[in-house]
Amino acid sequence: MAFEPTPKIFACKQSQALAKDIADKYGIPLGNIITSTYSDGEFQPSFEESVRGCRVFLIGSTHPSSDHLMELLLMCDAAKRASARHITAVMPYFGWARQDRKDKPRVPIAAKLIAKMLETAGATRIITMDLHADQIQGFFEKPVDHLFASTIFLPYLKSLNLPNLTIASPDMGGSKRAYAYSKAMESDVVICYKQREKANIISHMELIGDVKGKNVVLVDDMVDTAGTLTKAADLMMERGALSVRAICTHPILSGKAYERLEASKLEELIVTDSIPLRQTSPKLRVLTCADLFADVMKSVHVNQSISSKFLM
């Protein structure tokens, strides 16, 4: 068997804490990388150790600002030019994924563009979690390992032992995810139907299904301004729900999200650490995804199956 050197793990600035936890779980230290910044904001990452012939894991979520995506692209390019053998972009949160199609004339398909940019920069594999749209995997010509945070959330949800549990989707687009959770929990499903005036602004919301006397758990891939989640939670409590919790993989929590969360009837918002939080809240519970990524990265390195990580 050909010699396979020890892999190396490097972190983008925005994912330093998560990358440190992943490296600890993997059992190797984070690699040394230095980023130089010019006075106008331009920056240049530099690997301070050899990566020649190595499998390199570059960990970085690409939530705004766009500097986060740019840093990951520059690190891919640097690793390629330093003769790394494999360059795996580990993106716990794949940003710009809401632009996965043309929903009106004369708009970009940003997710497709980013896929091409990553491949051009040198990424030979992508590992990500809970894409906003599953079809984004098809935008790549390189292997994509699309992990599901259900492997993290379901054990916690089962530990709550909630009676009369009902899984809910905050919109029609998330119904597939809600049905998968309901199958695992052997529970009912309800769906929220919403109409938007424009991005992040909801004009009307209705509930499809009965929540009276139920403990409801809303399931979604991300929470941005928290407008949809909090409106759905308040609506369900008005319709007789005993309690409403929410599971959201990626805690973007922009704008007035924290204020909405505190003022809402949500009992708990359960998220992962795919994106670092801007601030804390007594209603927030963070479950780490470090173990999941470390396990998958180990399997990828030694060419083992990762199918056991796919519960949905």
Write a structural description:
Pfam families: Pribosyl_synth, Pribosyltran_N. Its EC number is 2.7.6.1. One of its GO terms (cellular component) is ribose phosphate diphosphokinase complex. This is ribose-phosphate diphosphokinase. GO terms for molecular function: ATP binding; kinase activity; magnesium ion binding; ribose phosphate diphosphokinase activity. The model has no long low-confidence stretch (mean pLDDT 93). The chain is built from eight helices and 14 strands. With 312 residues, the chain is an alpha/beta fold. The chain has a seven-stranded mixed β-sheet with strand order 10-9-8-11-12-13-14, sandwiched between helices. The protein starts with 7 loop residues before the first strand and ends in an 11-residue tail after the last helix. It folds into two domains: 8-148 and 290-309, Rossmann fold; 150-287, Rossmann fold (3-Layer(aba) Sandwich). α1 (16-26) crosses α8 (290-301).
Please give the structural blueprint:
Elements lengths: L7 E4 L4 H11 L6 E5 L5 E5 L7 E5 L6 H16 L4 E6 L18 H12 L3 E5 L14 E4 L2 H11 L4 E5 L5 H11 L2 E11 L2 E8 L6 E9 L3 H12 L4 E9 L5 H7 L4 E5 L11 E4 L2 H12 L11
Parallel strand pairs: 1-4, 4-5, 5-6, 6-7, 8-9, 8-11, 11-12, 12-13, 13-14
Antiparallel strand pairs: 2-3, 9-10
Keywords: ATP-binding, Cytoplasm, Kinase, Magnesium, Metal-binding, Nucleotide biosynthesis, Nucleotide-binding, Transferase
EC number: 2.7.6.1
GO molecular function: ATP binding; kinase activity; magnesium ion binding; ribose phosphate diphosphokinase activity
